[in-house]
Specification:
The longest helix has 6 residues. A hairpin with a 7-residue loop joins strand 8 and strand 9. The chain is elongated. It has a three-stranded antiparallel beta sheet with strand order 3-4-7, with no helix packed on it. It is mainly β.
Length: 171
């Protein structure tokens, strides 16, 4: 095995034989984007009748602390209910979920536009666990004039930098 380029050499394999090579690796928490592993098989000893099948790629989505945010505009708060008016409300649901192989502590959801959220924070999230918060925002005349409300929330924890999630609601 060559540690510099990751190649394996001097492997003897009989015609029709199979070889399974298992490699375990750990990505740094600062890894961004998907983890992509590409394997290519070559030989200098024989003619390969089907070289197109000598490469394979495995893509694993990045593991992460994920924050999602969804807003729904309630037009029925202020009449008429067929248009957005000052005083109508956008109801938000914010979900933070742990997709990392360890427990996260002091996970929170912070949203300056919504203020106090309905949930008990901070959270401790094991692998695969999630927590949900809700909040509401009341439309202003400036929002109506702009035609939209852009809102961003942040999900910090003790172990990771803050994760952001945004939602744009047309009004």
């Amino acid at each position: 095995y060559n540690e510099i380029d990751g190649s394996w050499t001097d492997i003897d394999l009989a015609a029709g034989g199979r070889l399974t090579l298992t490699i375990v690796a750990q990505a740094a928490l600062t890894q961004t984007g998907d983890l992509i592993n590409t394997v290519t098989v070559t030989t200098s000893q024989a003619s390969d009748p089907n070289p197109a099948n000598n490469s394979s790629q495995d893509v694993n989505p990045r593991i992460e602390l994920r924050l999602t945010k969804q807003g729904v505009l309630d037009l029925a708060v202020v009449a008429p209910d067929d248009r957005a008016d000052m005083g109508d409300v956008i109801n938000y649901t914010l979900v933070v979920s742990n997709h990392l192989p360890f427990t996260l502590t002091n996970v929170a959801i912070v949203d300056a536009r919504l203020g106090a959220l309905t949930c008990t924070q901070p959270f401790t999230l094991a692998l695969g666990a999630a927590a949900t918060c809700t909040g509401a925002y009341t439309l202003t005349q400036s929002d109506i004039n702009a035609g939209q409300v852009l809102n961003t929330a942040t999900g910090p924890s003790d172990q990771l930098p803050p994760q952001n999630a945004s939602a744009t609601i047309l009004v």
